[in-house]
Write a structure and sequence with these properties.
Helix 5 packs parallel to helix 6. Strands 1-8-7-6-5-4-3-2 form an eight-stranded parallel sheet. With 217 residues, it is of the alpha/beta class. The protein is built from seven helices and eight strands. It is globular, with a radius of gyration of 16 Å. It is 31% helix and 20% strand. The protein binds D-xylitol-5-phosphate and zinc ion.
Length: 217
Amino acid sequence: MAWIAPSFLAADIWRVAEQISGLEQAGCRYLHLDIMDGAYVPNISFGADFVKSLRPRTNMVFDAHLMVEEPGRFAEDFAKAGVESLTVHADACRHLHRTLQQIKDLGMRAGVALNPATPIGAVEEVLPMVDLVLVMSVNPGFCGQKFIPGALDKLAKLAEIRRSRGYEYLLEIDGGVNRENAAATVAAGADLLVAGSAVLGAADWLAAYQALAAEAL
Ligand code: DX5
Ligand code: ZN
């Protein structure tokens, strides 16, 4: 059983208040916040002040995904903005262990993200300390890309490592998740399914959320 984390990036800016409260009323527990700096990825989104302005509007868990060079520079800002879970890319941090520890010391859950080309070995030493591992199933930067199937194998390996070594991280899958592949990601071990275009980017976003949530049961 898994949870859907709709990505705010795909929201309709004219209907965003309706979309956020509608998701929450439908039982959605996580809101995925994609932070992009135009350097680590070729796109710019929004920052901590923007996230802070959303905080009083919803009780959903803020699952922030930093696609930012040296994300430790912003960790305190996101903690103050009310983010509960902060995920950084392994290859965006010069000292990954230090950045993850900093996130934990600020009272947030610490996540590490792997790009499609990043091997599990790149994060093996930090697996005992992380609360979440995010497996990218597209290259980061944009909504609406096609799911890369190799992510399923990576999820399954991370699920097996978690089981055999007694680790406790959540597994999150991000990129191109839709009704066709959601059940396969859950079967491979995903606990949290990020959905951008398949939920808030859909014309009938509430029905789309409900249908995807049913696939993840
Ligand atoms: C991509 C972001 C994703 C994105 C997902 O860089 O990390 O969270 O919003 O959008 P879809 O579900 O459309 O691939
Ligand atoms: Zn994301």
